[in-house]
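Subgroup meeting minutes
Present: P.N., E.W., G.H.
Scribe: E.W.

1. P.N. recapped why we're keeping a running log of single-chain structure predictions: easier to compare across weeks, and new members can see raw inputs and outputs side by side.
2. G.H. added today's entry (102 aa).
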Amino acid sequence: SIYGILKKYFSVESAGSVQEIEISFLGAQWADVMGIAADLPALEVRRCAITADNIPFEFAQDVYRGDRLIFTAQSIQPGQAAASSGQIWQHALDNLQYFHNH
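Output recorded in log:
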């Protein structure tokens, strides 16, 4: 994975990420890329990953067609995964908001 490469060769390790999911409508640019009409429903996912030092190293935006979408979610029960501090998550969320607004 890209995270494995970042860790092995650059000593960059993810402490976590925040994702924002939004229902929207395709603009002309995305519609052209997908070969479909503009203004059709879409699902946008924006993501920010940060290191344990609160340094953002990944910003991503994914756009999915609304007419061909399956959403699957997995949850982990409390105590099954290492807890991360609220400060780290807040910093990732702040960076995601910056990415969304620019």
